[in-house]
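Repro:
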Amino acid sequence: MERDIADGWRMSALRIAILSPTPEYEENWSHIKADYTQLLGDSASFIDWTKADDFSGFDLVTPLLAWGYPRDCPRWFALLDRLEAKKIRVSNPVSILRWNSDKAYLAELDAAGIPSVPTICSALLDRVALEEARKTFNVETLIVKPPISGGADGTFRLERDDAVPDSVAGQRMMIQPYLPNITEEGEYSLFYFAGVLSHSILKRPAKGDFRVQEQYGGQEEAVTAPEGALTLAQRAFTATAKITKTQTLAYARVDILRDGDGVFRLMELELIEPSLFLRFAPDAGAAFAKALVTGV
């Protein structure tokens, strides 16, 4: 059985397992599920990632909707180990998923010459760590976030007089300077399928907030990515391939912010379960589906 996709290419009926959130997960993902169902049709099955075990009935596994994995890291990494041990075809590759799960990868990229948002990793977050970070960055306002996180879970903006939030006190956390340009210009997201740019958007937080995610009121619009952002994305891919010894990835999202000096800085490489905002793709996601199914 074959099915036509928007740009005219044809795909065989691969059996695809899309790892998905638990039923208890609070964020609405039905609109993204609808996108993937429209593109992949009966080939796709959505499986609770926490219960995913037997993949014998599938030709391909993808973690595209494995939202919530940072809340159960041992289970997540055990799943990756099983996929790797059983030599199951996974897109993106397990080695990339494992590397990209912990934002410590940003330090590796920074060491490779890829400018990222300045970051201090605190083994035990407390007021002393925050004050030292303020001195280092020469700023009053800080952002703290878990190194394994998604959707701005556990992320806080802290002024000098703010207490360390109880939910993250004493935990391993990343500390960054708050860059006001997140509200003044916004955050760019660039989307690549099989290494080719598909579309770009600019995300801005709701008034009074700093988080650009939709669940916090963030809004997005289609834009032409600035040349500096495009250059940084390509440099990040080159460095990632060298560090991880991997080739071109089926899908990737690159989040980039311009700092107050006009320097484009990498915020995150989203290589596991990014929202792809396919409604902004000029081909409605056909290139994404092709890259996922055929491999690169």
